[in-house]
Amino acid sequence: MAQATVHLLRHGEVHNPDRVLYGRLPGYHLSELGHRMAERVAEHFVAERDAGAQIVGIAASPLLRAQETARPTAEALGLELEEEPRIIEAENRFEGMSRIKEQLRNPRIWPMLANPCRPSWGEPYRDQVARVMEAVQDHRGRAVELGGSGAETILVAHQLPIWVTRLAAENRRLWHDPRRRQCSLASITSLDFDDEKLVGVRYAEPCADLLADAANLPGA
């Protein structure tokens, strides 16, 4: 059996003073704190490599915040940064809105809330899992081709697609309270495989000490 690990890395904090649910909107850069998180993550993976990890690839969502988070790690490990559209942020009909809690009081948007299990306001959770896991399996296979058994690769993505992928991996229901996601800024959700079979899920927060200063908007 060929063992491999795919690390799903969430992007760092975004400069978003108006607290917009930015979704797939272009132009949202990392904040100063977000850049510090990206550098910290790079240090984390360099330490892992120096301890023997065979990290052979890195790819990121096309969105700017994911690309900026990935770049320091790619440079530190001497890897070419690839773009992976299948791990982009989820579609969301609230995209572009600010003050979401206030918006939810507006009866005109209540029809969007009809089915939180799907969810009715955006891309179905199952569709997100399907596209992310397709990407995960492709990059897992490529990692093994490049590095052999034990190879690792990194995919830089977004909170919701990462979280529902983890829920599916752990055979848990996909609908959930966004405030209870264990997927903090610049966190790492690691999927361990024997060949194509998922055998373990691990979670790490290399930037845990920086989170107290972060503006962590649910759903972002």
TrEMBL record:
CDD domains with a match to the protein in the record: HP_PGM_like
Xref: SMART domains: PGAM
Name recorded for this polypeptide: Histidine phosphatase family protein
Species name: Zhihengliuella alba
